[in-house]
Amino acid sequence: MKRLYLVGTTADNKRLVLAKASGAKFGSFVVPITPKLKRILQELEEGRAENVRKGKGKAAEAEAPDDAAAPNGDDNAFEKITGLTGKAAKAAAKRGKAAKAAPAPEPEPEPEPVIERRPPINSRLAPAQIQALLRQGKSAQSVAKAAGAPLDWVRRLMEPILLERVGIVEEMKRATFTKARRGPSNESVGFALVDNLRDRGVAFPERIAATGWTAYRPDGREWRVKFTYAHRGASRTAQWQYDPATRTVVPMNILATQLSWRGTNSEGVESESGNTPRARRQAPKRRPAAKKKAAKKRTAKKRTAKKRTAEKRTSRKPAAKKRTAKKTTSRKAPAKKRPATRRTASRR
Length: 348
What we know:
This protein is α+β, with helices and mostly antiparallel strands. The protein is built from ten helices and eleven strands.
């Protein structure tokens, strides 16, 4: 039998997570915490406590003198204490001595925990194959359908995979991203992401950065980590490639590069691109009530003045139209034709 070591419990505190090596952070073996297991553990604790008490009693008896049964050197002390006389007293004393001389019973060996690693009879895939599919990012429903196994059993195998994903995300957030021609970031990926979201105008960046992370490992290669958030009515996704052995972070899109790097500009202010961060739009200052009334009066006066000027312009337009009409008619009037005169030749 292989020896397993306790890693911890699942999120719902209903199962124990065990690993092959001591001090491991992740485990692939799961043991349900059943009432039978609780009863066995309670019996073991009671047995240990009783053994400790017996050991203390034996030590006290070994230190006590032989004549402790007869205080003050009285031969009939045993008869006085027990109330027995004659042969009955002698028989009781012999039984007491035999009980003291008999060795203490050895504690029962601890039962080994029952680990449910055997797949159901109708499952077409082994537990390792099912966990490999879950590690690739597939859902428990699709894996249960492909394996032909119960959904509850697949979800039970998925619990250590979820813990493994959380550990990978936390490791990548503590790592530092190195940008080409810019060098390493001044902050880790997690802190740089929060600051860059704040510079982009995202509300509550700490709360958003705490959620929206997913990790998967396609075909046993490097881990892929995704971060999804909503901003200005659109969903945005940043994706990285992470290698836990070398702790290298490789962005897979432009948004991941922008969010995971934090530089310093010439003025010493940290920003996403190393330049001065974009100035935020300030909220308008509130005016007191008296100033608001004065502003309303001014606007009303301006409106009335505009109306008056518009009325004056409309009143002047008809007269101007008449003048222009007269001018055009006078210009367009045809010239009067002179009567034709017949010329006669003069006779000489």
